[in-house]
Amino acid sequence: MKILHCSDIHLGRRIVGATGEFSELRYNDYFVAFAYIVEQAIELCIDVFVVAGDLFDKKEISPEILARTETLFEKLKVAGIKTLVIEGNHDNIKSGKEKESWIKFLEDKNLIVRPFYNEKDDGIEINPIIIGNVKFYGLGYPGFFADSLLEMFAQKVNRSEGYLNYLIIHTALANPDFILGTIKAESIRNLIGKVDYIAGGHFHGYSAFPKDNPIFFVPGSPEMWDLNEYNQQKGFIIFDTETNEKIFFESKNRKKLKIEIKITEPDLVGARQQILKLIESIEVTDNPICYLILDIKHQLELDIPEIENQLIKKGAVKVVTKIVGQKLSSYKDFSGFDSTIAEIESEIISKWDKFGKIPHETEKLLDKMKSCQNEGLSDDFNDFIDGFLERMIEGSPNGN
Question: What is the pTM of this model?
């Protein structure tokens, strides 16, 4: 049997602040990336197709998003591929409100199956879905309770002769004290020998654990959820139960073009000419997102929008500019320079009495809180506020 594992598809995503043609292009990119994985599943004769959470970017979706999603799952069904989907933090199903979920709607239309578990007074009841010689278990998105839920699962799951155990859970490895919905490495180690494959998600870059003979995999989101994810590996994993091979495949997504320019001219006119001349010589194909890194040693007030527009004219759909080698103060008024904002935040955090000693962890926590608020994930946002205040009161937060 061949099982394809993907996660964090984020269908329907609209980038916060993006407008016009770029917004529409990015909205479509998520469907294109997922369609490629569906096509690969059919071409490679996959038996089971697994989505480990965040199929949708939000709980509320439009008729168009639903229709396009149904079309893709219908292709898998026609090809005889069984599709299993669990919820993630973006499309989370609250206990008792399953009827409000679009994932449940897709299940009711016989396009997917949703593995789940039941909470009991004495722990949990696990309900495997058996396909061939594989038992599939789903634990959804556990949030703060991921480690304790995996501990209960480890106590319940058993080996059955002739069967493999395949667990699907929307989580990733990190310090759960600072990143909601993640787990400690020990939770995975406790499942070695009890499960054959753990299909994770939540994080948007590929990872596998343990390093030797891994059983826990995060495939990464097929398409960038955030423009800062351009260095991450993204794709899907195919587990061949006959050979025990677990192979990672790159996804097909929006092209990224990284451009680094070291500016040697000391004056503004010379620097501008140097940059524009280099940009003119660069070949821009396939409508990429460009990452422009300007290494500036001198104090120059460059017209960044003019430079970015030259790349847009050559075919780039978006230009993300980062300036290095120059003091922060010279660009303090340039609101479009994202890295400057991050550096200002870092400087402010470093002066805090309690959390200034761990600025990196605090920055990550605050970034996640802002993301939750911007994306309308109110439950996650409230959980982060609670956890953040608890650590402030304790006065001794753990490092990552």
Answer: 0.81
